[in-house]
Amino acid sequence: MRENKMISTWRSIKAITTYQDRKYIYFLGGLSFLVSIIESIGISLVVPFIALVQRPDVIFTNRYFSKFATTFSLDTKQVIVYLGIILIAFYIGRALFNTTYYFLLHKFSSEQKHKITVGLFCHYLRMPYKDFLERNSSVLMKNIDIEAAYATQLILHFLYLFSEFLTILLLYSILIYVNWQITVFLTIALVVQIFFLEKCISPLAKSMGEQRTRNNKVFWRVMKDSFANFKMLKILSRQEKTIQQIENVSKSLSRSNAVGNSIGIIPRNFLETTGIVVVITIMICSVYFYGNATSIITTISIFFLALYRILPALNRILTSYNQILFTYPSLEIIADEFAKKYDDLPDNSIEFTSQIELRNVCFHYASDKPILQDVSFCIPKNSKVAFVGESGSGKTTLIDLIIALYTPNGGQIYIDNEELTPDFYLNWRKKIGYIPQDIYLFDGTLAQNISLCLHSDEARIIQVLHQTNLFEFFASREGLETKVGDGGVKLSGGQKQRVGIARALYNDPEILVLDEATSALDEATEKKIIDEIYNISKNKTIFIVTHRLSTIQNCEFIYEIKNRNVRKFVLSSD
Ligand SMILES: Nc1ncnc2c1ncn2[C@@H]1O[C@H](COP(=O)(O)OP(=O)(O)OP(=O)(O)O)[C@@H](O)[C@H]1O
């Protein structure tokens, strides 16, 4: 089970990392092997040195010490001084190497966080519009921020686990070589303890991880909904209820984080106690049976030193293992997200010189509920086309099909004689200026909101401001630098709508789509703007979705959407 978890973790890590990243992980694995060797050498060197300082005559009995002394013609004191200096230099080198290793480890982890965050954001932007509508944007934001951070932590813990495992393996080899009986005794004590610790801790870490993921989802959703419905919250005086909801989720989150993060400390305390108990027991037994512990003092020193390194390493293995369980749901979420393949659309050029034709187009959101069936019509270029119909009849859906946000479930759309397939979507959309009913303005300047970029063409903006009757209003403010507020809160509904129209006109598109775009305006302003749009759109194809028939009197084609199909609609003369 445990092995399976590690294998599935590695598989998920593979799914969210590139080949280059994995090569770097192997490199870090190699470095961690060197770290383990250095740790083992460090411990193996200290004990003989202590023995030498304790009994300098060892120089004459030990062949390595005597060879060192004769090769460099050193006396006893000089041997101790030089070996001491070598040992100090070794430990300084070890500290530098370990620091570099941990720096590289954390650098890699931070870079992974950056890559996953940006990668996920780009991945989501590539998502087809229909799929995006199925998702809750607060969940997407949570994944990009919180889950990406936890998934990165998991990669770090995976590397810790590997590195500490190697260190323990090498130190254990030394201990077995020094005294296998004590090593076996120590191992049994530690293994039994680890077994019981893990029986209690691992399920807790796992359930805390799942609880955290669940709560985070609710937390972000409530946050998003509250800010999006701020006005309604105020009017309905529901702040208290929302605060209560956030408080409950946040409390539960802090509880699972507190437990999840602190279970790492539990193994250390128990393991340290066991290690000390084992060594002291051996010393007591030695004194009890042999009268003193002098004969095994060197062995005990090695065990003390080795445990000094092994116990923190064991603790880190357990901590990392539990952290992997705690953060595994996040890794799974990120891996699942990346597993959804969203193709980069090619930008194949499509010509629009004569007409748009729909041939038996069918569309559904859910297969058992068709929205449009066998819709066919043909629109010559530069026509003005209106779609009318009851609310929910499918006007916006039809428009979304024409502007290539959706792909028909049946039938085809032709632009001139070319079928509008996904290969042309990107190019086709560039020809379109879209004005929705709900314009979203971001917290920036008027110029940024119209051009949707940082460097805008001022002359063009002024032109579209004139066309949308906005110039005078903004001229009396701070001109193009006027701040519109988050969501355009500093503007009236009608002004917001007109900024949306200006935004669509800015790129001088071949096709203009107005989806209830003027519904927030009073009739006089609406007429003025629609007339202006018609005026400047002689060489544009216009699609208008509307409930107000007065706005479509100049349209050459008026279609009513009814019973999942379209039919020509005739405006009554009065
Ligand atoms: N993303 C979606 N998932 C599932 N069903 C949807 C989705 N979007 C719209 N619908 C359904 O499709 C039908 C047509 O919706 P659409 O928005 O196209 O109508 P409409 O004619 O533009 O309505 P309105 O005039 O009220 O804006 C409606 O019954 C609606 O509930």
TrEMBL record:
CDD domains: ABCC_MRP_Like
Protein name: Protein glycosylation K
Keyword Membrane in record: yes
GO annotation, cellular component aspect: plasma membrane
Annotated InterPro entries: AAA+_ATPase, ABC1_TM_dom, ABC1_TM_sf, ABC_transporter-like_ATP-bd, ABC_transporter-like_CS, P-loop_NTPase, Type_1_exporter
ABC transmembrane type-1 domain ranges (all copies): 31-324
Recorded superkingdom: Bacteria
One of the record's GO molecular function terms: ATP hydrolysis activity
Residues covered by the ABC transporter domain: 356-574
Family annotation (PROSITE patterns): ABC_TM1F, ABC_TRANSPORTER_1, ABC_TRANSPORTER_2
Topological category with respect to the lipid bilayer: Multi-pass membrane protein
Main location: membrane
Location(s), subcellular: Cell membrane
Annotated keywords: ATP-binding, Membrane, Nucleotide-binding, Transmembrane, Transmembrane helix
Segments passing through the bilayer: 24-51, 79-105, 148-172, 178-197, 296-314
